[in-house]
Every structure is written in structure tokens, then in C-alpha cells.
Amino acid sequence: MTSLSDIGLQIGVLVESIVSTYSGDTPHAAAMGCMTPDGFTLVIRPFTNTQTFRNLLDRRSLVVNITHDPSLFYRVVFGEPVEFEESRFVDAPVVKEAVAWVEAVSLESKPLSSERVEVLCQVKHVEARLARPLPYSRAEHALMESLIHYTRVKVFKQAGMQQEASKLVEKIKDYERLIRRVSTNPSHLAMVARVVEEIGKLGYDCRG
């Protein structure tokens, strides 16, 4: 079986992934960090008010999908269409565009705060598709950070954590300016514009 290290998961290093689960019979995907503490198990830290956490309580199965494509994260974050296929060993779907994925089941969870838990997962299967390495792009890095911060701004606002939310909004402003400075790619510009627009709908001024 392919190992976690084979798909770039290093012990103690947090990576951004897309966690897919079933909500009833409907595939659900969410952007989420994951880490392996020992090279054999996985840890994720979902917020307790999310659909992913509720799905894990219901079925205990998940797939951690690995991708370096920010447009896939973008579609997941904003609920745009994503294609799925069946996994081999767990009751959770695989994101078709993932370059690699880990099929797992949750073993135990412990609270990190009143809003978040740490879930330890047993790996059942690791698989990778052939992928061509891409050169590093500051624009894509900034776009990823903007999307991650946006998901947290929503959670913090719902929890009444206005100071934390405002700090992330300021970071998103900085990333938007960076993206516009280093990229003229229409896709990059459209995606960060959408992030800024959605932040505005939450009541924050994110115009750089």
C-alpha cells in the first residue's frame, strides 16, 4: 500500500486538504488541515458546528483528499460543483480531481476548545494518481491562505469572536493586494474578488 510519506505527508507537518464525507447519501466536502503525528494515523481538527463533524459522528468515515490546485479549494469553499467517486474501503466519497487521497475512519476525538475537536483517524488506504509537479506561485499561496482565512472568519463571526475575525480580515486584505501585484491570471483575480465579496456580505470591509 502507498504510504502517507509517499504522498507528501510528513510527520508533524500540517497540510491543507479537502475532507470528504457523506451527509446522508449526499457527498460533502470541506477544506481542512490534516497532519500525521506518527506516519501511520491522521489527525484533523474540525469545528463542532460544521457538517463535516456531524457526518463523522454519524458514519465515522472520511477521505482526506490532497491537491495543489487552489481552484478546487475555491469550489469547495463556495459550494460550487465538485465531482466525486466511490472510495474502496470506507463509507465516504473521493474527490475525483484529487492527486492523492487517504481513506480513513475516526478512532477517537478530544475537545480542543468549546468550538473545536481533534479527531484521531485510522488509515485504511492510501492512493495516488500521477501528478506533474508545479512551480511555486506566491499568488496561489496567497489565494489558498485567503480561502482558509475566509472559512474561519465565518466560524468566528458565528461564535461572536469579532476580534479574531477582524484580524483575519486584515490578513485577507494583505493577500488580495499581493495577488493583484504578482498575478494577472484572470482566474486568480476572479477568485480573490469572490473572497472579498463574500467577506463584505459578512459585514466586513475587505477592500484593499
UniProtKB/TrEMBL annotation:
Coiled coil: 158-185
Cross-referenced Pfam families: DUF447_C (PF20766), DUF447_N (PF04289)
Domain of life: Archaea
Record-linked SUPFAM superfamilies: FMN-binding split barrel
Keywords: Coiled coil
Keyword Phosphoprotein belongs to the record: no
UniProt domain DUF447: residue ranges: 16-126, 137-191
Protein name, UniProt field: DUF447 family protein
Organism annotation: Caldiarchaeum subterraneum
